[in-house]
Amino acid sequence: MAGVLSQRGSRTSVKAILMATTSSTLDSKREPVTATAIGTRRKRPFLLDLYSTAVGKKYVMAISGIAMMGFVLFHMIGNLKMYMGETALNHYAEFLKELLYPLAPKGVVLWILRGGLITMLLLHLHAAWSLTRLNRFARAVKYQGPRDYQVAKFASRTMRWTGIIVLSYLIWHILDLTLGVVNTTGTNGEFVKGEVYQNVLNSLNRPVVAAFYVIANVLLGIHLFHGAWSIFQSLGWNNPRFNTWRRGFATAFATIVVVGNVSFPIAVIAGIVK
Amino acid sequence: MSHLKNLKLKVWRQKGPADSGRFENYTIDEISDEASFLEMLDVLNEQLISDNKEAVVFDHDCREGICGTCSLMINGVAHGPQKATTTCQLHMRTFKSGDTIVVEPWRATAFPIIKDLMVDRGAFDRIIESGGFITAVTGGAPDANLIPIPKPVADAAMDSAACIGCGACVAACPNGAANLFTAAKISHLNYLPQGQAERHKRTEAMVETMDEHFGSCTNHGECSAACPKEISVDVIALMNKDYRASKFKNRKELSR
What is the spatial distance between Cα A23 and Cα A35, in angstroms, rounded to a whole number? Predict the structure, then answer.
């Protein structure tokens, strides 16, 4: 320390003082790690270091959640074209492939967006998986008597389950209407790429599939009901000016997405869209 | 003053940290409704001692709701059914004659059971230790109100400082997270001018020490509902924001 003090004023010594005082916790493994510790910290590159903490992972959860919320909302709005007829919906599908064309070749922007969404989904999944693991470690022995939750909602208690079911629905949905692998089973007509309107009708005319779409979207709504509120807390967006709006925003967002999405299978089954 | 009759207790008994433990059933024939929950346990212990059995071990100290020593999961709720109340301030009038009351210790990996209902909350001390101290001018006693603090800020800091460190937030959290405790301790100093010099160092160190012991926040709000001092989950949002700021600011400071 004496050596550090004698060099005070030079650029390196300020850093040395900081190393010695401010950030002893930043540069070395923290001591002591006690018997109850369930994890230890080691030095990592900055972003990974941020991600290594639970708070950092919640940031990733929230940011990837926002990206996917944006997708879900615009996906629903785009699908409303179904009510404007076959040409409108098919033309919209073509438009997505031609985003920024002729600046970018056809399909490139769409694939960039898809790549971003896949990355966000993977980050969301990894954060959820590792946080769940952490939480299991944090209470290795569960309460032996029954718990009586005071305020935890059904939505917040079931995030993992709604998330897993929505993920399996997402995989089915891509197999059904993007790749068409499971589209034609037991229906009239073949899956034709680009014939979006007819493909949707073929798929949703199967009552079991329509019911699956309805259930999955209601579960997505429950997931969003908690997630869209939770984002504000995780990102530290807390202010008396808008705190009362956070719950309302999440409820409204979830409702709009669910009502829009659930209307499609119902409209097809009811024969409103033919 | 009336009495409760024929109370059935289901109490967690565990000989030591290595014992697997089990519930044991006891009966309290008669107890005043003005007795506190801990006084009821005292009565139980007197019964056990006169029967030549070992008394139930539980944490308690001030018995006036300000020290944060008492704990207990009562019927699956931290500190029992009454809102904003510690176990020592919970009175038997909250219950009815013939009730069955299940009493369990806090459960978290960071809070190992020492014996029966007593747990080691030392992990909270690790978090506080890592926060370090604030720089204060020493010497003669300073004048009162030497540092002006706006009233709403002082109030907010006081709301956070009300945390007694009882651990109910961890016990109530479905994930065993200590975010409410850590956030209360962080925001208490981060609100005030005296806490600004070490703000970022403290926030980063405390959050990362918390991370070594506890689970993660999924925003259920159970912590705040269980908190005997009714600390709001707003402090958790402040901690999240300050942690982000601290990570970047501390990194920038290092590069100077």
Answer: 24
